[in-house]
User: What shape does this take?
Amino acid sequence: MVVRVIIRKDTYRDSVTLMKISNKVAELKGVLQAAVIMATPTNKQLLRDVKLLTDEIERAGPNDLVIALDTENEESMQIAVSEVDKLLSAWESMEVEEVRPKTLDSALSIMPDANLVMISVPGDFAKREALRALRKGLNVFLFSSNVPIEEELELKKISKERGLLMMGPDCGTAIINNIALGFGNVVNQGPIGMVSASGTGLQQVSTLIHMEGLGISQAIGTGGNDLSKEVGGMMMMEGIKLLEKDKKTQAIVLISKPPDPQTGEKVLKVAGHCEKPIVVNFLGEEIDEIGKRGCIAATTLEDAARAACALVRGKKIEKTIFTLPRRRIMSMVNAESSKLSRMQKYVRGLFSGGTLCYEALVVLAPLIGDVYSNIPLKAEYELEDVNVSKRHICIDMGSEEFTIGRPHPMIDFTLRKRRIVQEAKDPETAVVLLDVVLGYGAHQDPAAELVPSIADAKTVAEQNGRFLSVVASIVGTPEDPQDLRKQRRKLKGAGVIVMPSNAQASRIAALIATRGTVEEKLFG
Amino acid sequence: MKKSYLGKVMIMPNKKLKVINIGIETFAEDLRKQGVEVVHVDWRPPAGGDVEILKLLDKLEEGVDSPERDCLKRLTSKQ
Amino acid sequence: MISQPTDIEPQTGKVVISGEKPDFSSSTMITHPLRLEAIFIGSIAANRSFNQERIGQVHSVFRRAFNVLISDNQLISIVRRDVGKGPINIVTNLPQYRSMTSIGIRRKYEVLKVDDLIIVGNNVLIISTKNAKQWRPRKEFRGNLLTIKKMRDNLMVMKEVACSHGHFDGLGQLIKYTEDEHLEKFITKKLNLFARMALPHISRLLKAIKAGSSQDIKRSAKKLIGFGPGLTPSADDMLSGLMTSLALIAENLDVNMNFVSKVNKDIASCIPGRTALISQEFLMHAVAGEANEPIITLIEKILTAKPNEVENAAKEVLAIGDISGTDIVLGILLGSQLLLDEAQYLDKNI
Assistant: This one.
């Protein structure tokens, strides 16, 4: 007689199956008995008496299940045990397939040690889901937008209390423990931490840091409304404190569109007390406060990235105008602008990322004057009809008027492609300025999408005795699924001027459109 | 002393992210491509979009965070 | 506007979608939330869930029922219609051909109560208790008491039904091999391992009860609690049957209630920590003569009804659980015999 025991902890769920399994196994040849017993003291004593008490069973409790097999010989025992295993796994895989969890709770029963919940449900339901996750002690990445600001505040209060990350609402990007959440790029791990209220801003900075040869420790997304008056920068301040404690972080970059003044001050105060050096980019807003608090102000995202790298390397912080030498830049400018017809004079920026669009506005303003937009720097430069260009424009095609009922332009290029050709038909368009964002979540081959339309647009211009200049920057890394280098090659092949950053692309667009007349202004 | 959940995720650099994804499935796929364990939740609007139930549930959620409970929380968290 | 359930009609439990699916069918068949009606709420279940917002968490899920953990060691059982009434049961209108395992409930799901509704998980299951009747296990039997002789005859009927309809993987096998009502002579060779190992302790327990020796009762009880196969260990089910029958028969025959009460309390004192939580619930209630309705009904029929009614009642009990029913019947058999002997001896006016 050979007896073996198989222990199953926490098996109340499949207890019925276990009985069925043990009954089935009992029918096998050579099996004398198959019993399902609880690991109670008295049953353990029985197992002890028949010399079957293993350490594992000893440690088990009265609510744990044991399958005891009694067979004629060792051979039957092997068969019986393997049959039990087979039946158990068949049941489990059937169960796992059958169960596509429909709630957080059911997901937690499948993965009880989850530590992050990513939520992208409609805004009306977002708070409920996020609240549930926070109450379970889980960090939250909340992609959903259109969440009332009071709800955001409530969520962030709770997350602060519990020491959890509440990234969002309206958070599209984060990098946690070297994993890209949402729309994110593949970047190296390294000594620079980030807290950002802008998704594409985070992407631009992190990819540039990667291209500089350094990396990101953690990049915490706060969602677009964190630095509003109501929310008061709660998540950004928590993020700063966390990165301060994080051993791997040596320098910190903060990014946001211009914050509510009071909130901005609060955040800077916290930043000022931080032991680690902090670079602040409030998208061009030159706040004296930044310097006063001992932080480093950066006007562009690129400057922020390079400043952080310089801090870590102990080098001098420099502002970048262009990475290529002036001579090279001007010869590229001349090559493009010499082909322009007289009437062509405007920059037409078509952006998929709101932050990049905003940054372009900030960079262009001192160079070519005010630029019209659907997110203008000044109210009087709001475009009356967002579908009709007027003078210089930079439009955010990821904003609501373009995306209702459509996928985001980072994924779906239909509207942008159409617009590129539309601009080519306008005799006053000199330069089309584009951002191309790579990484997870983005289109798998943006260049392949854009190139045909760019070719069409250039042809349209040519047929009408004009030349359409196209300038683009690519936010990405060679490690991204789309591979930055491949994308660059494809775009260059179509005659696109590809610049290393959005700021540089904007500057060169201004130079081309003005036929180099702003050169002195730019280089100083 | 307040338990630092975040510490579990961030301050221990070897800690693996284990994610539950609720909503858009491509996010889960992108995580899996990065080698992350993800459980995707097939989310549907709660209560089948039943407004009455939703209101009752909201009422309940508010109740959980009532002042009395907060007070209790504060009392019990002071060790 | 309240959405209508698409697969179960609330009042009648009639199925709208046809086609029986096996237990392990895809839960995508279910449209959430599934809405059930509670038909009966056991008195203890009512106490435990009354005025709570958060009742607890799902503890375990079975074919016919799922348990909700209220506090560290208390449960409520939400059961399928055919399981019937019990002190901790909330009986729903989930019909017999559906199983609780296939409706999408999982362990650790939160169970909340909002006004009349019990909400399981994030709206996986909603149970309306609006029309539920409270059920209290009865102590006083209905109907006139039979003579002791007729009661004994009924016991034999019960025993015969058990022999033909029972399951014998646990201690219940002893019913089959009882030559002698007092469990002294046995064909031990034919007994399964558990019945064989338990036999001497059961024997001693009965002796200890008759002698009124608290110490010996406890010693034997400790050897039995938690013992045997099954999710509710076989010996526990036997002890539940034993204690319930002792309590109820003593109550109704007006025999030695204090004594019986003491015996049950002695056994009960040995329970904590020795067995699975679910089993513990049954045992603790059995102490007071409280049990699921089929068990109470069977004991009642033994004392008051005709043999064919006893037969039917016995079949109901035998259908409980997988082997539980048979073990319970063994307990009822032993407890009843004990007290009927006592009653006869004292020659009460029956």
Notes: Chain C has two domains: 27-135, 148-346.
